[in-house]
Amino acid sequence: MLEPDAKPLDLFGFPVYSIQCRGGKARVRITIRFEDTAIGKSMTNQTSTVQKRIPRRQRLIEVGMDLFCNHSYEEVAIDDIAATADISKGLLYYYFPTKHDFYIAVVQHAAEQLLKETEPDLTLDPLEALRQALNAYFAYVEHHAPVYLALLRGGVGSDAQVAAIIDSVRQTYVKRVLERFPEEIRLSPSSEIAISGWVGFVEATSVAWLEQRTMEREHLCDLAITAFTVVRNWLITR
Predict the structure, then answer these.
(1) What distances in angstroms separate CA 22 from CA 1, 25, 28, 78, 221, one per listed residue?
(2) Is the pTM value of this prediction over 0.70?
(3) Are 233 and 191 in contact (CB under 8 A)?
(4) Across the strands, what pairs with 3?
């Protein structure tokens, strides 16, 4: 017959049983899996709940991306978000206390996505890498035209939090471009001003392009490259 020892075998608290056999006692460890216990199941369920919260929040942000890509901020109601995500408004408020909080999360996600998709290929020639990044940029803003136009036109984009996200994206682009210049040009105060102006030019032309659609994306990219070449040559020769 198996009988538990008076003391556990080790710090983990696994029960140790003794069995009588010829020649003395033989010690046998019988391991009970932690997750099979009542406490273990409870903690496992709590962990699963935490793990599920991250995908759900991400899913809500993706729903927001779809909605704001086709409708302005003012046109999207909390009811629309909840209905599209197939959840209650109460659960939506659990993740995002207000519609504005939800919008900020969507804008932040869009900014991170844009920067990721336009990451330059450092193995390419600098100008070719820039062209590739510009093509990716124009493709992205074309796909997300409504929210992109709303942000750059003002409106909700004038919100301090949204403006900070947009400015952070601009500064990242300025830094990426300057990193490909020689150090003496990169550290020049006028270089940051010049490249910031070029980034503004790209934004302005992309807005006009999305509104008018009077040229092909390839030609828009050529225009941006031509403008950059002018700025680059000015920085090199000054």
Answers:
(1) 13, 8, 15, 75, 88
(2) yes
(3) no
(4) 18
Question: From residue 58, how far is each of 71, 166, 169 by CA, in Å?
Answer: 20, 21, 21
Could you give the CA distance from residue 231 to residue 238 in angstroms, rounded to a whole number?
11
Q: How far apart are CA 45 and CA 144, in angstroms?
A: 38
Tokens of 126: 């600098």
Contact 156, 162 (CB under 8 A): yes
Q: Tell which residue, 208, 76, 90, 191, has the closest CA to residue 138.
A: 208
Between CA 215 and CA 224 the distance in angstroms is 13
User: Domains (ranges, CATH) in the chain?
Assistant: 2-32 (no CATH), 108-237 (1.10.357.10)
Please identify which residue in the block is written with the tokens 């336009």: 118
Tell me the per-residue pLDDT of 30-79, one tens digit each, with 9 for 90 and over. Answer: 444 444 445 444 444 544 444 444 578 999 999 999 898 888 788 899 99
SS3 12: coil
